[in-house]
Write a structure and sequence with these properties.
7-stranded mixed beta sheet; 4-stranded antiparallel beta sheet
């Protein structure tokens, strides 16, 4: 049974940092993150190719977020720095196969339950 377990969310002040983790129960071609703020659609944040290590970032997080992987643990991390109030959302881990065209919700195979990130003073 597929399991994606996220952790690392919480409350942080603007300018602060958090690291999210996503532990997967098996190997997946792509693993990455989406987020959904109240009243907004779910949007792609970042993804990583678990074999090649190539990465993708949404424009809104480039230069602030870094995605990385530990293949031995089937775990993906999202280091989030210089956090802003607009980063507040539930962050979801997701997986996709080799055939995806873009990191969009409709193309994902499996989802985690999400972890809440709140950026507020």
């Amino acid at each position: 049974q597929v399991q994606l377990v996220e952790s690392g969310g919480g409350l942080v002040q603007p300018g602060g940092s958090l690291r999210l983790s996503c532990a997967a129960s098996g190997y997946y071609y792509y693993i990455g993150w989406f987020r959904q703020a109240p009243g907004k659609e779910r949007e792609g944040v970042s993804s990583i190719n678990m074999r090649a290590g190539s990465t993708w970032y949404a424009e809104s997080v480039k230069g602030r977020f870094t995605i990385s992987r530990d293949n031995a643990k089937n775990t993906v991390y999202l280091q989030m720095n210089s956090l802003k109030p607009e980063d507040t959302a539930v962050y979801y881990c997701a997986t996709a196969g080799a055939g995806i065209v873009a990191w969009e919700p409709d193309g994902m195979d499996y989802w985690g339950k999400g972890t809440l990130v709140t950026v507020s003073s």
